[in-house]
TrEMBL record:
InterPro entries: ABC_Transporter_SBP (IPR050902), ABC_transptr_periplasmic_BD (IPR002491). Keywords: Signal. Residues 51-65 have a biased composition (Low complexity). The lineage of its organism: Bacteria, Bacillati, Bacillota, Bacilli, Bacillales. This is Vitamin B12-binding protein. PANTHER family: MOLYBDATE-BINDING PROTEIN MOLA, VITAMIN B12-BINDING PROTEIN. The keyword S-adenosyl-L-methionine does not apply. It comes from the Bacteria. The gene is btuF. Pfam families: Peripla_BP_2.
């Protein structure tokens, strides 16, 4: 069958978008277990950020008299690759080669500890001023070695094989692979433990939960027949199926992902899109094709074979912010709100 494939506007955005297809596979969700206070130096699982009672599995000093929570070191944690890390103290010199993790570090108030970031790290504004460490899929080995960081954070776009290769150069790589919003919050809480920023991490997670609740409350009364069929074209010619956080965002927003019968990230198929007949098409705003110099929404509208698709006939194309919807970091719930507004502007304000 004929496939629709357009070259992406920007090589940087293509690398970021396709980096998603390499991603994910880690932390657990949910959790209603009571908080456990491990012994000093005991290996613990990452904290859970799911519904129900929050767990606090990493060693902490019990607050007394209004004192802030403090991590008790040594702290042992496993990353997404299964590697065990022992932290004798909070890392004081950090590099991040993932935009999501860079955003998390800044959200935890650790901007002054960041010694380098990836070429894609551009939020918050201060991130642009940090030394650059190369791409998110192939960091600059020399720059990483020269940075001599206590810890280097990598995210969903860096393959485990690349992580292991960098570890072979004595670079202390810590990898996360979130697949869901709960996974993202798990990681933020875990970083709060590692960097002794627990209270800041809990505030960030509380804000994220509030945004998620805002969306789920807004769409909770939708009947099955009222739910919109949604296609997400996250880069020209590419969509996302089940098992990835973008699919979860569509579902939480009350939509039905027409690509949910596909696993992971895949090229669009023209006949399938016509048969699925999406009522809403989501796409990243301000994305320009580097060959045609056209915006992605213009490219979508000009596909003559899609003229019968409901979303085209009814002009229901909704642009969303490419960063908040593609970076599984502290702004992912802001991306959820954007997606929900795009699908149900009458329900989500």
């Amino acid at each position: 069958m004929k496939k629709i494939v357009q070259r992406i506007s920007s090589k940087r955005w293509l690398a970021a978008a396709l980096g998603l297809a390499l991603l994910l596979g880690a932390a657990g969700c949910g959790g209603t277990n009571e908080a456990k206070q491990p012994a000093k130096g005991e290996l613990v699982d990452p904290p859970k950020a799911g519904s129900g009672t929050q767990a606090s599995p990493a060693p902490t000093a019990a607050p007394a008299g209004g004192e802030k929570k403090a991590t008790v070191y040594p702290l042992k944690v496993k990353d997404a690759t299964g590697k065990e890390f022992t932290f004798e103290k909070a890392p004081s010199k950090i590099v991040s080669v993932s935009p999501s993790e860079t955003e998390t570090l800044f959200a935890l108030g650790l901007g002054d500890k960041i010694a380098g970031v990836s070429d894609f790290c551009d939020y918050p504004e201060e991130a642009k001023q940090k030394p650059k460490m190369g791409s998110i899929v192939k960091p600059n080995e020399e720059a990483l070695i020269a940075a001599n960081a206590d810890l280097v954070l990598s995210g969903v776009s860096l393959k485990t094989a690349a992580v292991e290769q960098l570890r072979g150069l004595n670079i202390n790589m810590f990898k996360v692979e979130p697949k869901t919003i709960d996974d993202v919050m798990n990681n933020i809480l875990m970083f709060g433990q590692i960097f002794d920023k627990q209270e800041q991490a809990e505030k960030v997670v509380a804000s994220m939960k509030a945004e998620r609740q805002k969306v789920t409350d807004a769409v909770k009364d939708l009947k099955p027949e009222q739910k919109k069929r949604v296609l997400m074209e996250f880069s020209p010619g590419w969509t996302v199926g089940k098992g990835e956080f973008l699919d979860e965002l569509i579902t939480l927003a009350g939509g039905i992902n027409v690509s949910a019968d596909i696993t992971g990230y895949a090229q669009l198929n023209e006949e399938k899109v016509i048969a699925d007949n999406p009522q809403v098409i989501l796409y990243p705003k301000n994305l320009i094709d580097e060959n045609s110099k056209k915006s992605l929404d213009q490219i979508i509208k000009e596909r003559s074979s899609w003229a019968s698709v409901d979303a085209i006939k009814n002009n229901r194309l909704a642009g969303v912010d490419k960063d908040t919807t593609s970076r599984p970091g502290p702004r992912i719930t802001a991306g959820l709100v954007e997606i929900a507004k795009g699908i149900y502007p009458e329900l989500v304000k």
